[in-house]
# Entry
Amino acid sequence: MQVISVIFNVVAPVFIIIGIGYAWARAGKPYDSNVITHLVNTISTPCLVIDILTRPGLTIPALGEIGVASALCLLLSGLAGWGMTRTMGLPARTYVPPLVWSNGGNMGLPLCLFAFGELGLGLAIAWFAVSSISNYTIGQAIAAGGITFREVVRMPMTWAILAAVTMIATGLQLPTVAQRAVNLLGALTVPLMLLSLGYALHSLRVASYQRSIVFSVARLMGGFVIGWFVAWLLGLEGAARGVVVIQSGMPAAVLNYLFAARYGNDPQEAASIVVISTLLSVAVLPLFLLTVI
# Structure
């Protein structure tokens, strides 16, 4: 009973904030998604990366281990997604990205924070960093048919990770005033991500329920199984194992829909997987948490 209470306290705040974002959109209230997205991507998330990763308790080996786990989960998800689309005769550019890249930011970060504390958040950020950079590069390349190295270099997340790793390795610290500013800006990330997800879900529409359910179940259950396999393979325990399992089992990321819309890869299909997998996650995420808490 205590475990159920803990899980409820972890999951409920996430979906409450998502629900507020959805209700805000449904009420027709103003919300500039472009401004918020740019704010989160270029300022608050890089600040959160530097703030959390440079706190005591996180080491480069621990972060590297989670980074390797993230890369392995993405690789295995990609292979499974490619095989699934080939078997079903569907275009990989539309269906593989939602099967590979999960919502490790909007939902994964707060869940790991509430479940495992600041240590869990730090490890979840390491996961999210690898997933986010690969999504903006490999994921976008799949959707667009190519990407330039210049776009990777220009990503604020890339520089934030390099700055954080340098500070961890050298022991350097930001001046107190700068550290407090970074902390305040980073604190914007999680609530803005959740509100934005809820707001975005209001405008997305389901195109094909049957196919969307199949791919959504594959995203959630397949990611969960792959997360457990990778955690076992690397011998992860405690918060590290929990973060890998939870992050790997998240619903499809909204960014997959945005790339599909930008490059004309049947965006309604991608939107359907995002919506259905997010709705299904309300039921399955507590079960996932039950196996790692």
Summary: The chain is about 80% helix and 0% strand. The domain at 2-290 is CATH 1.20.1530.20 (Na+/H+ antiporter like fold). The mean pLDDT is 85. The radius of gyration is 18 Å.
